[in-house]
Design a protein that fits this description.
The chain has 351 residues and is of the alpha/beta class. 20% of the residues lie in helices and 23% in strands. The strands form four sheets. It has a six-stranded parallel beta sheet, with helices on both faces. Helix 4 packs across helix 5. The structure holds zinc ion (ZN) (2 copies).
Length: 351
């Protein structure tokens, strides 16, 4: 039997008896309170010798079912038993090697799970707690970006499921500095997509200039767009959903859109101008042709926010639009702090 394992299955196992408190300076004779509780915590639940994962093993190949040997977490890491992992469009970047991830690589960066093993040095996360992790997979705390607080732009950042193995697996080893707690009141499968698609929409929209009551359009009601409509509604915007499929009309209304534009039947820019012009257009579908078509739907000083990864070039005749919009932004996420707020918003909607 491995150290830390118990014979009765999946509950928390034996205590670690030799965990040391942080050293205290006793030269003055005064014993200050330790910064961290010295109470030892359980560091590992019962675990297998190996576990199943799905990995890209060759360029343009299919996901392969593999067995991964168990490895105990090192300082700064924890092992999470995966309850749910969302499927993101960028997972295919690994299979196609559009990013130099190296192969084999286990994709998946929308992870919700249970803390299963921690090193004895871990003082924040405890075995049995519900946690989540997204795209951002770790930062160094010491580069110029980190010192400025821009952790998601760390010079040495890593990305879950891209540059380190992700959540298409029974277990995943994650860095703690970019993890969050997840309420057990939330369904893991419904929550996981919020950790990439959700935070991309939420954190970008809330940092724009639009105010409650403004006309805000969301182009593309797919993985990101259907969440963007809900956030836009919750932020008090007069929300317009734009889709090339009339089949999305009913869904968009249910998600909170006040207006629906079928871009296969009417020019979306003209429809938006009829409504007064958009303060912000959120492009959430990777369709460069539609992005070009919606531009003239912006009102004065409007913002075009592109959060879709269109693979072809987007052509923008700058002179024609110079007086129309002042912001043209390509956003991924602004910091990880939004990870907390996003769940607050969801929890409030459940109350
Ligand atoms: Zn993603
Ligand atoms: Zn850094």
């Amino acid at each position: 039997m491995k150290p830390g394992r118990q014979p009765t299955g999946n509950s928390i196992s034996q205590k670690v008896e030799d965990t040391e408190p942080l050293p205290v300076n006793s030269s003055s004779g005064h014993q200050p309170e330790p910064l961290v509780s010295p109470v030892p915590q359980d560091t590992m639940s019962d675990h297998p010798d190996s576990y199943i994962a799905y990995s890209f093993t060759e360029k343009n190949g299919k996901l392969q079912k593999i067995n991964v040997p168990w490895k105990d977490p090192q300082e700064g890491e924890i092992v999470v038993k995966v309850l749910a992992c969302g499927v993101c469009g960028s997972d295919i970047f690994v299979g196609e090697q559009q990013l130099p991830t190296g192969l084999p690589r286990i994709p998946g960066h929308e992870i919700v799970g249970t803390v299963w093993a921690v090193p004895s040095t871990e003082h924040k996360f405890k075995v049995g707690e519900r946690v989540g992790a997204g795209w951002h997979g770790g930062h160094c705390f010491s580069c110029d970006m980190c010192i400025a607080g821009n952790f998601s732009q760390c010079r040495k950042q890593t990305i879950n499921g891209i540059f380190r193995d992700g959540g298409y697996a029974e277990y995943v080893t994650l860095r703690t500095e970019c993890m969050i707690y997840v309420s057990e009141d939330l369904d893991p499968a419904e929550t996981a997509p919020l950790l990439c698609a959700g935070i991309t929409a939420f954190n970008s929209i809330r940092h724009m200039d639009a105010s409650p009551g403004d006309l805000v359009a969301v182009q593309g009601i797919g993985g990101i767009g259907h969440l963007a409509v809900q956030y836009a509604k919750a932020m008090g915007f007069n929300t317009v959903a734009i889709s090339s499929s009339d089949a999305k009309r009913e869904l968009a209304g249910r998600l909170g859109a006040s207006h629906f534009v079928d871009s296969s039947k009417e020019p979306p820019a003209k429809a938006l101008q009829t409504l007064g012009g958009a303060q912000m257009i959120v492009c959430a579908a990777p369709n460069e042709k539609i992005i070009e078509e919606v531009l003239m739907g912006l009102g004065p000083n409007g913002t075009l926010l592109i959060i879709a990864l269109a693979r072809a070039s987007v052509s923008i005749p700058i002179c024609q639009y110079l007086s129309i919009f002042r912001h043209l932004l390509f956003i991924c996420c602004f910091g990880w702090l939004g990870g907390w707020l996003i769940f607050d918003l969801l929890l409030q909607s459940l109350l």
